[in-house]
Amino acid sequence: MQTNSYKALYQKSLAILLCTTLFSGCLVSAFKKKNVGTKNFKVEKNTEYLNVMGNEMPAMPKFSSLSPKSGKVRGYVKDIYGNPLKGAHIGVRSSLGGGYYSGAQGETDRNGYYEFLVPQGVAHYYNAGYSIDYGDGGIAAMGLHPADGKLESFATPDGAVENFVLLSYGITSRENLSESPRLGSTYYGGSIFISYRASEDGDAHVRLEPIENPSNPLLKIAYWVSKPLFGKVLTPLKIIYSRKLPLLWFSMKIAKFEEKQNSLSPDLRLLIKTATATQNGCRFCRDIALAQAVKKKIGTEKFTALLSDDISKQTVFSDKELAMLDLLREYNEKKNVSDKTFANLRKHFNETEIIEILALNAFEHFYNALTIPLQIESDGLQQIANEKSNW
């Protein structure tokens, strides 16, 4: 008789939207100038989010006057102190009709200046971002704010001038504040998400007891192989495959297809798996995909960006990757894909690759559907992979 049952007594998440700075000392300086001092907030028990900064916006720096150039976009990117930012990424899309887009990307020079050609059609800015290194190999991707507070479409022959500012606090727009006040993407600066789960002492978080010492010799071998590969015996191996061994052989066939019978690049394959696992809320599946990214030395910047509320604004993704991610998001949310989304996918992938994308997405749903109902959480595989990579 199984004595350990999962009993969740209480679970609540509190998102505190702290529109503060990501730069050391920047917010402190801003507060000193305005004599804001310390603010105290009372958080009620049913509070889901708290906007600390309100609708406060910093003053915009001054920019040199520029005139539009036909067929091009140009402008400057600065921080709130007026310092030029080198390496900021700007993206523009153009359409000649029918919902088909052609994109162009540019990067600022040491003077914070960008200028590049735009495909013919009706164009608009679709991303503007800047990234900084932090911690031990971490990267923070941050959105840029249009200096005039708005982004408008334009005809390519007319050209356009748009200056951007990296804000340490403020709101993206009053429309976003009105419609989505609880989302971190509505604000510039930092967000803190606090969550906790209470359970009785001794209760297991998973709904089935892990089998630590299987009697089947094949499972014993699988357990033994898992340790050097992942740094531990995987929880799904102890909970799922130990109870239904044929599922392990099925999973091995899927793994063979993913690694040996798939023409997609390793980073695209992992991006598909991570995107679907993230949308479905499978923490174990996301964790193991990120561990593989570390092992293959692909890096985790793009996988971290998948947590953004609006992936299209993340400058780390190419137009090809965005087309794929748009299809995955649309199918995973609506269980359907529009003609426009599929047509955009076909611009970047051939028919065989499209089938491979759909197959990998389907396989990831299979794994998610096994682990989520059993409440199998992250195994800490990414952290283990990070530690091994530093040896």
Description:
Among the domains are: 72-166, Sandwich (Immunoglobulin-like), CATH 2.60.40.180; 257-389, AhpD-like. Helix 6 (266-280) packs parallel to helix 9 (319-334). It is built from twelve helices and 15 strands. By secondary structure, the protein is α+β, with helices and mostly antiparallel strands. Strand 4 and strand 5 form a beta hairpin. The protein has helices spanning 26-34, 174-179, 217-230, 235-241, 245-260, 266-280, 283-295, 301-305, 319-334, 339-346, 351-371, 381-389, and strands at residues 8-17, 49-51, 72-79, 89-95, 101-107, 113-117, 122-134, 138-143, 145-146, 154-155, 160-161, 164-166, 170-171, 187-188, 192-199. The radius of gyration is 24 Å and the shape is globular. The longest helix is centred in the C-terminal third of the chain and has 21 residues, at 351-371. The two termini are 44 Å apart. Strands 3, 6, 9, 11 and 12 form a five-stranded mixed sheet that branches.
Fold topology:
Blueprint: E1 8-17, H1 26-34, E2 49-51, E3 72-79, E4 89-95, E5 101-107, E6 113-117, E7 122-134, E8 138-143, E9 145-146, E10 154-155, E11 160-161, E12 164-166, E13 170-171, H2 174-179, E14 187-188, E15 192-199, H3 217-230, H4 235-241, H5 245-260, H6 266-280, H7 283-295, H8 301-305, H9 319-334, H10 339-346, H11 351-371, H12 381-389
Parallel strand pairs: 1-2, 3-11, 3-12
Antiparallel strand pairs: 1-15, 3-6, 4-5, 4-7, 7-8, 7-10, 9-12, 13-14
Helix pairs in contact: 6-7, 6-9, 6-11, 7-12, 9-10
